[in-house]
Amino acid sequence: MSDHILLVDDEQEMRKLLRVCLAPYSYVLDEASNGEEALDKIMAGSYDLILLDIMMPEVDGFELLKTLRDHLDNQIPVILLTALGDTERVVEGLKLGADDYMVKPFEPKERGGQQNG
């Protein structure tokens, strides 16, 4: 059985890039374009990992992470995807319960994507 990943990002191009990067690994990938949609999917499904953008309209990634850790499944690993690479924001995300973070923009091979040679 493949790992089930929820990708939450309001930017369609970022979701497309990550979909392409993850395709060779046969993950089951669900997508949400905002925090509310993600919350609905989390409540209805079962995920092994959540890739979560911080800067989204309405319900941002920090709010969704706090809800997840305080009220829902506390065990799902969460990796934050953020254009906010400053230390304060990264520490805030980790204190809220994120397991790791990736600063955008990033190269797919930075985090174990396909490499040539």
Quick structural gist:
With 117 residues, the protein is of the alpha/beta class.
Instruction: Provide the low-confidence segments as ranges.
Output: 110-117
Q: What form results from the Cα inertia axes? A: globular
Terminal CA distance reads 29 Å
CATH class: Alpha Beta
Q: What is the fold named in CATH at topology level?
A: Rossmann fold
Secondary-structure blueprint of this entry?
Elements lengths: L3 E5 L3 H11 L5 E5 L2 H10 L4 E5 L7 H11 L6 E5 L4 H9 L4 E4 L14
Parallel strand pairs: 1-2, 1-3, 3-4, 4-5
Helix pairs in contact: 2-3
Explain this structure:
The chain is α/β, with parallel strands linked by helices and 117 residues long. It has a 5-stranded parallel β-sheet with strand order 2-1-3-4-5, sandwiched between helices. It contains 4 helices and 5 strands, in the order E-H-E-H-E-H-E-H-E. The model is unreliable at 110-117 (pLDDT under 50). 23% of the residues are buried. This is DNA-binding response OmpR family regulator. Keywords: DNA-binding, Phosphoprotein, Transcription, Transcription regulation, Two-component regulatory system. The modification 4-aspartylphosphate is found at residue 53.
Descriptive terms for the model:
117 residues, alpha/beta, Rossmann fold, five-stranded parallel beta sheet, 4 helices, 35% helix, 21% strand, globular, disordered C terminus
